[in-house]
Specification:
Blueprint: H1 4-18, H2 25-28, E1 29-36, E2 45-46, H3 48-61, E3 66-75, E4 78-88, E5 102-114, E6 117-125, H4 127-133
Parallel strand pairs: 1-6
Antiparallel strand pairs: 1-2, 3-4, 4-5, 5-6
């Protein structure tokens, strides 16, 4: 079985996020392709230019941001991956003042790929965990749920 689509997901995170080459989006995202990100409640769906602006803002807020694809699996033209994100919030761009705090959160991504390019993607990251680690929200300590 070919793993070209999983490699494309890894390339996305390596080039766009870890390498800071947001212009690689133009090569990796198909024309008309969209990315769904529930953290962007006012927009929700991003096309290439809007995503690049979002990525630049995130990299401004977290210059050392690092995405690690822990595991990826594919089926036909879809890929699902478990991702860990680390960084230090030292700049503006998250909608809050820089906290100087480091964080580590996990997330899941799914992608629909056609002809070697993303046509649609979905991101779900632990934003409550992120903002808890940054000291913006206080997460209640929950006991064992029955």
């Amino acid at each position: 079985m070919s793993h070209h689509n999983s490699a494309l997901v890894r390339r996305w995170f390596d080039e766009v996020w870890n390498g800071g080459n947001v212009d690689a989006v133009d090569e990796l995202l198909a024309p008309g392709g969209v990315l769904h990100d529930p953290s962007m409640a006012d927009v929700g769906t991003l096309e290439a230019e809007a995503f690049k602006a979002h990525a630049r803002a995130m990299r401004n807020a977290i210059p050392d941001i690092r995405f690690t694809v822990e595991y990826a699996m594919e089926s036909d033209d879809h890929v699902a991956a478990r991702v860990t994100v680390t960084g230090t919030h030292t700049g503006r761009g998250l909608g809050i003042e820089p906290t100087g705090r480091a964080f580590e959160v996990t997330g899941m991504v799914m992608a629909h790929i056609r002809d070697g390019r993303f046509v649609e993607g979905w991101n779900h990251f632990d934003l409550l965990g992120l903002f808890g680690q940054l000291g913006v929200v206080i997460r209640p300590r929950l006991g064992m749920m029955i």
